[in-house]
């Protein structure tokens, strides 16, 4: 009797083990099937999106559910979002920890908004319809941004622009201050989405040299080129001769404080005093603009105008070629003037005339 009972117990235990193994096998099989199904659905969605983008005329009900479309978009821009967060936080850290500069309080009676931010107000364009502030930095696609603001003006309500007497939709914070007072400026700085695009300081400087002082597009820069030659060579150039300013002469002029809006340090836009919401880099222009348009919701309204935002001046070989003419002493002096731009916008400061990566 005892042996019979033991056999039954062993049989039941064996049966339990078999049932447990079977259960786990079914569970994993179901998991694999579900996973494969999800992959198939995902692939189908991708194909639908691609076919929709290629030819929308034959697509009747291929629109994705809103939550799925949002999820895919968020995933697409996740890397750009992370980069923006890094750039914004980097500036805040440098400003507060290294420079010991705190942002200005948003007080309409604080005169520092006029005195400290003069250059920023003069070069920051406003769009009241979309609540945007775009600080234009010359040699970083500035003409494209102005054209874009004109496009937004044409598609907006245009109320404020007409009040300011702007026919093309281009008006700055300086004009807002003149028309409505400082409080109107502070209100926009506090509540609008603030944008700036920057560039490697030395590719920007080289681009300015080649476009303005070599090509000399107008009499102003021909005169400026002559003035720089007279200053660095200590000998005036005869009027009959075309200016032939050398790059090392230009660098010497800039290192000694020679100023122009096209190559002056971007730090004069005071990014520490009022933080920017979006910091684009010309080196990642296409990705940054795509994410920006998505972020502010104008991607289906306008396209960024064609402009010469990418030139050979940004090519490392071209940069090295020109800076090979510069002595170490002169480069060190130039670095002193631009080191804050390198630091705050997270570019690598070159230690010698071939140190460009």
Account of the protein in words:
The protein is built from 15 helices and four strands. Mean pLDDT is 82; it is low at 31-64. A four-stranded mixed beta sheet has the order 1-2-3-4, sandwiched between helices. Strand 1 (124-127) and strand 2 (132-135) form a beta hairpin. Helix 8 packs across helix 9 (182-191) and helix 12 (247-255) packs across helix 15 (328-344). The chain has helices at 2-54, 66-76, 78-98, 112-115, 118-123, 142-155, 159-163, 173-180, 182-191, 201-214, 219-233, 247-255, 285-296, 316-323, 328-344, and strands spanning 124-127, 132-135, 193-198, 278-281. It is extended, with a radius of gyration of 30 Å. The longest helix has 53 residues, at 2-54. With 357 residues, it is mainly alpha-helical.
List keywords for this structure.
357 residues; mainly alpha; extended
What layout of secondary structure does this protein have?
Blueprint: H1 2-54, H2 66-76, H3 78-98, H4 112-115, H5 118-123, E1 124-127, E2 132-135, H6 142-155, H7 159-163, H8 173-180, H9 182-191, E3 193-198, H10 201-214, H11 219-233, H12 247-255, E4 278-281, H13 285-296, H14 316-323, H15 328-344
Parallel strand pairs: 2-3, 3-4
Antiparallel strand pairs: 1-2
Helix pairs in contact: 8-9, 11-12, 12-15
